[in-house]
Amino acid sequence: MTFPYRCGWCFFRAMFALYFRWRVFNPERVPLRGPVILASNHASYLDPPLVGVGLRRQISYLARENLFHVPILAGILRSWDVVPVDRDGGTGRGLKQILNRLEDVGAIILFPEGTRSRDGELNPARSGIGLVVIKSSAPVVPVRVFGTHDAFGPHQRLPRPRRVIVKYGHPLLFAERRAEAASCSKHQVKEIYRRVAEEIMTAIARLEPRAD
């Protein structure tokens, strides 16, 4: 970890431990080295740091490009090596930077649902994560967060001291899907993106808030 990242990592770990009484299950399933995609459900602004600081390796986050024009915040985002993405969150330059980060054996957090759940329930996955998975060679670790919607949901101004939990699943490899995509039509490839996204969301849904 870089020094700025470690400072943020320590701050958020202390916050989750003291204010939210967090629990972390099966972080050992995430490789400590090499490229990896962390695919998590999304119900709160708490989710990205919760998923990241449960691990003892530096993780790349995504942030909207317009945030990189905000004084002070822009400096913090750059010091944490955050990936800027466009409004759609997964096209153009943002997609290229995500793939470059994975090629540089980095780890990155993606949210298959594309946006925060309004009611805390799981939403269908968008096909964008399927595109990233097929274009890369990284394993995908499904992740599920619990309690973050109750602690700091979309309709709350301030976070409440509720227990939050993060659970990491077994890595998914998608070798067969990547081989299939390499030799089929453009229309069929889009269908593969959709199926990969659905498989990831199904794996997330199966995770329970306890150690296996």
Give descriptors for this structure:
alpha/beta; Glycerol-3-phosphate (1)-acyltransferase; about 210 residues; about 40% helix; two-stranded parallel sheet; 5-stranded mixed sheet; 7 strands; 8 helices
Write up this protein.
With 212 residues, the protein is an alpha/beta fold. It has one domain (3-153, 163-205): Glycerol-3-phosphate (1)-acyltransferase. Helices cover 39% and strands 14% of the residues. The chain is built from 8 helices and 7 strands; from the N terminus they run αββαβαβαβαβαβαα. The strands form 2 sheets. The protein has a 5-stranded mixed sheet with strand order 1-7-6-2-5, sandwiched between helices. A two-stranded parallel sheet has the order 3-4. α3 links the parallel β3 (62-64) and β4 (83-85). α1 (3-18) crosses α2 (47-53) and α5 (128-135) crosses α8 (186-205). The chain starts with a helix and ends in a 7-residue tail after the last helix. The model has no long low-confidence stretch (mean pLDDT 91).
Helix and strand topology:
Layout: H1 3-18, E1 23-25, E2 36-40, H2 47-53, E3 62-64, H3 73-79, E4 83-85, H4 92-103, E5 107-110, H5 128-135, E6 140-146, H6 148-152, E7 165-168, H7 175-181, H8 186-205
Parallel strand pairs: 1-7, 2-5, 2-6, 3-4
Antiparallel strand pairs: 6-7
Helix pairs in contact: 1-2, 5-8
